[in-house]
Structure of Lysophospholipid acyltransferase family protein:
Amino acid sequence: MSVWLPGAPCTPRGCVEPTERAAAVPLAVLRLTAVGLLMLAGIALLPLGRRVPAGVVRRWCRWIVRAAGVRVRIAGAAPPTGGLLLVANHISWLDVPLLAAVRPARMLAKAEVRRWPVAGALAARGGVLFIDRDRLRALPETVAALTTVLRDGAAVAAFPEGSTWCGRARGHFRRAVFQAALDAGVPVQPVRIRYRGVRGTPATTPAFVGDDTLLASVWRVASARGVTAEVEVREPIPAGRHDDRRALACAAQPEVSAGHA
């Protein structure tokens, strides 16, 4: 645990509950195959870089989540151009494509993501900004790198809680990443992510928490039925509205947890 990437108390055994209905094994395998094919297609298109239209990237990201068996509902929209810091609460590995479906951006991720099978290679080649949570001395350098990207007119996406939570509880937004938005003079786009079950109640099946493995979490999602991802794109916070990163982080923080909304 570190100041930059703190841990959450959520664990697979204590927080994650299966959905009321489970998909048959052949269907789950079919879903995983579809996700894998979409990931490979994304890797094949990486050499094209920014020449791929943003609309295509957004649709591709939605298809990944949908291929995993999760319905997607997005309310609101982010500014389509210009430097922008997107911030969201963090529950699942699904949050990454969901946030990119709002607006394609360079993602800030922990260094461990680089070692994930397939997804790690895709992230590295896609321009993800990795942060080593064991090297706090590297934090100013990371903030400076984010500032440069934002000043160049690109979007950066981050999960300021610093760790995944189950969805029924949430963490506080850490302030460091907001310093980059202040230094670059760009707006902040808050996004709230929630997962619902068949009856509209909070679903913890997608949660990727504690000592959970990526493969176990992916299989749990692919084996579930009736899960919906709800993405609420709130009003952007204009540059200059807040003078310090503490106030900016508080303004971007969701008012209530996903589990009580």
Remarks:
- The beta strands are 71-75, 84-88, 106-110, 129-131, 155-158, 188-196, 228-233.
